[in-house]
Write a structure and sequence with these properties.
With about 140 residues, the protein is an alpha/beta fold. Helices cover about 40% and strands about 15% of the residues. The chain is built from five helices and five strands. The strands form two sheets. Strands 1-4-5 form a three-stranded parallel beta sheet. A two-stranded antiparallel sheet has the order 2-3. Helix 4 links the parallel strand 4 and strand 5. The chain starts with a helix and ends with a helix.
């Protein structure tokens, strides 16, 4: 049995916050061919992630680190129930539809490696918003 009411009123959230880093829709996602022969479409054809995208991830991680480090001195008193130990990062950049299937594979492998952090493209976010809108309209 719960000793505190709060633990029984769980709403699916970890009670933390997210840092959102937004680049531009035309931000490059994929760099040069890293492995295999470009255009061969074999399983070894892989692409490096563009520096703008990896730079955005590093920037987002730094913002998370800074937010946690200064949490108690900046907003801690105003948000006593906020879990400042488990923030998430979200990066929005580029457009998925501009990538070939083989380049999508490299991008998907990259974002799978981000752990609790997430990377979305502008067209993916738009598709999610349209779906959410349709759910609420019906």
């Amino acid at each position: 049995r719960c000793k505190e009411k709060r633990c029984c009123d769980w709403d699916g959230s970890n009670g933390s916050f997210a840092v959102v880093e937004i680049k531009t829709p035309d931000c490059d996602l994929i760099g040069a061919c890293y492995r295999g022969i470009e255009g061969s479409n074999d399983k070894n054809e892989l692409y490096a992630i563009h520096g703008n995208l990896t730079g955005g991830i590093v920037q987002m991680e730094n913002q998370i680190h800074t937010a946690v480090a200064y949490f108690n001195t900046t907003i801690g008193e105003d948000y006593k129930d906020l879990n400042h130990l488990n923030p998430t990062g979200v990066l929005i950049a580029g457009n998925y539809s501009t990538l070939s299937d083989i380049k999508r594979k490299s991008f998907d492998l990259f974002r799978k490696s981000l752990g609790k952090n997430q990377a979305y493209t502008f067209d993916e976010v738009l598709a999610k918003l349209k779906l959410l809108k349709s759910v609420y309209e019906n």
